[in-house]
Amino acid sequence: MNPEIDISNVTLKTERLLIRPWRQSDLDDFYSYASVDGVGQMAGWKPHESKEESKIILDMFISHKKTFALEYQGKVIGSVGIEKYNETHFPEFENKKCREIGYVLSKEYWGQGLMPEALKEVIRFLFENANLDVIFCGHFLWNEQSHRVQEKSGFKHYAFDTYETAFGTTEENEVTILKREDWVLQ
């Protein structure tokens, strides 16, 4: 089952990151990375073509209260969203509290270990504060970077599936999961 999660009053910290709700003042930083070719496609969406497009999505992040901004050295460089997992595809989890996380990081910061650092803290929050039993994640089969982030974060292979992107393609993807009992042992 997908329990409700509201992160509007949640702020998390790691050694290098402030993980917090989005603010209207983040628009320039958001557009700066979301408009770069190669960033959104890794998560199934096209680069933003205008600040107006970014503003619409930023407003959604704020109103839906389920997406964290990742702030590094005073600048927002990415996000971690806590999405609803597909209950129809995975009915075996109907008696477990589950959500799916998705993430994106500015191309300028790839390869510095920032996303595994952010996910480690968001995962801790989801298990300790939101009391989830299972966290889903996924990546397109061709996205080796995201695969590595998930491995480093403790996720294990669960299934292969398909994903409809925002730009109308269907991608093969790997679904990974992290169970609370496995996370406790890490």
SSE blueprint:
Elements: E1 12-13, E2 17-21, H1 27-34, H2 51-64, E3 67-72, E4 75-83, E5 98-105, H3 114-128, E6 134-140, H4 144-152, E7 156-164, E8 170-179, H5 180-184
Parallel strand pairs: 5-6
Antiparallel strand pairs: 1-2, 2-3, 3-4, 4-5, 6-8, 7-8
Task: Provide a descriptive summary of the structure in words.
The protein has 186 residues and is of the alpha+beta class. The chain has a single domain (12-184), classed as 3-Layer(aba) Sandwich (Aminopeptidase). Helices cover 27% and strands 30% of the residues. It is built from 5 helices and 8 strands, in the order ββααβββαβαββα. It has helices at 27-34, 51-64, 114-128, 144-152, 180-184, and strands at 12-13, 17-21, 67-72, 75-83, 98-105, 134-140, 156-164, 170-179. An 8-stranded mixed β-sheet has the order 1-2-3-4-5-6-8-7, with helices on both faces. A hairpin with a 2-residue loop joins strand 3 (67-72) and strand 4. Helix 1 (27-34) crosses helix 2 (51-64). The longest helix has 15 residues, at 114-128. The radius of gyration is 16 Å and the shape is globular. The chain starts with 11 loop residues before the first strand and ends with a helix. The model has no long low-confidence stretch (mean pLDDT 95).
